[in-house]
## 1
Amino acid sequence: LDLGVLISGRGSNLQAILDAIAAGKLDARVRLVISNRAGAPGLDRAREAGVPTAVISHKDHPDRASFDAALVGALGQAGASWVVLAGFMRIVTSVLLDAFPARVLNIHPSLLPAFPGVSAQAQALAHGVRITGCTVHLVDAGTDTGPILAQAAVPVLPDDTEERLSERILAREHALLVHVLAAIAAGHLTVHPPTTVAARARV
Ligand code: GRF
């Protein structure tokens, strides 16, 4: 898999991908990491791994479509054929989705369709659910709404804080994202535009 990874901040999911590749557990290459924020710590993680980086700020573009066109241009030039949104805090448009049909993945820290959008872990605590988790899904035009590829459940403990719960979910995110990418790389999971998911084996 030739990956383009889009980030906005910490980049721990990016790190999980880089570590899995380095360990020979994921047959993929990260062709480019793009951040919409210049100071994103994830950019250092990419540089550390010798992966090309780019900063493309949404603030330098008049609208979402032209921002996405810049992303598509950079991703295409780098040779990416799959795109992973790994803590990328921007809503993407059909400009990106049409350039990579059924080839854009997102990782989200809840069991979708519960708790889409920001602060999913706080939403779970506020709602009092006993089980939450994380989801890897294909991205469509909505916010955290695309076809689900895989999920992992994480119990909410009685004395959980947002921070502790987020930490436990995050550990599962890293494993789940790598698991899905490895399944795609191995041909165990094939996805067809616009929304059909064909799993040859359960992932
Ligand atoms: C993760 O919780 C991810 O699910 C959400 O944003 C966070 C990104 O964390 N979309 P990181 O930048 O990968 O460390």
Note: Residues 162-185 form the longest helix (24 residues).
## 2
Amino acid sequence: MEHWDDFLAPYKQAVEELKVKLKGLRNEFERDHVHSPIEFVTGRVKPIVSILDKAAQKNIPLDKLATEMQDIAGLRMMCQFVDDITKVVELLRARNDFEIVEERNYISHKKVSGYRSYHVVLRYPVQTIHGEKKILIEIQIRTLAMNFWATIEHSLNYKYRGDFPEDIRVRLQRAAEAAFLLDEEMSQIRLEIQEAQRVFSRKKDKSKD
Ligand code: 0O2
């Protein structure tokens, strides 16, 4: 294994670049005074201990990390509404500064834990002093409610190391469903507000005639 600093340098560079690019999208929506499907963006390079843990768990040889571990560099894009996730994925598909190699829809196919998110794996070119280096990056796109659930489940998971007592496992699944219901309710409220706004602006137009 080459030195970790050298191995991780392009991943760090890519996370910083993509954070700027994806936050830039949000700024564009703001400038246009329209609803942004992106609420906020975060990014991180997986800590070395977590890389080693995952490699051991999944039997990934350390010399195959670059091709077999897709989330050494990870970004998260949080959305207000479930519909926004589709818009964000479309924005990503339309770009030409990277190539999408895989998409995993854990919203229509939630994980048994209750986890929901849309994952997009990119092959992203980093320009280095030794030429171009393409690396894999995972972008997780989720609503604020999905993120709330995943963040708490992830921190509890740290304590139990993935082996939750049965009652906690069931409660977490129920909490995931509650988060999903919250998303559905919010989407419904949003639709009703949009409909009310359309009716209001039609009435206003008519009164001008
Ligand atoms: P981190 O950095 O600690 O978040 P596998 O682990 O085999 O299911 P695989 O093949 O690596 O998954 O890809 P997947 O499932 O698309 O992405 C794994 C990442 O998705 C995880 O990273 C989490 O960030 C997130 N994730 C997947 N399942 C769950 C879940 O049940 N609960 C939570 N909270 N997050 C989940 P890591 O490796 O855990 O790393």
Note: The first helix runs from residue 4 to 31.
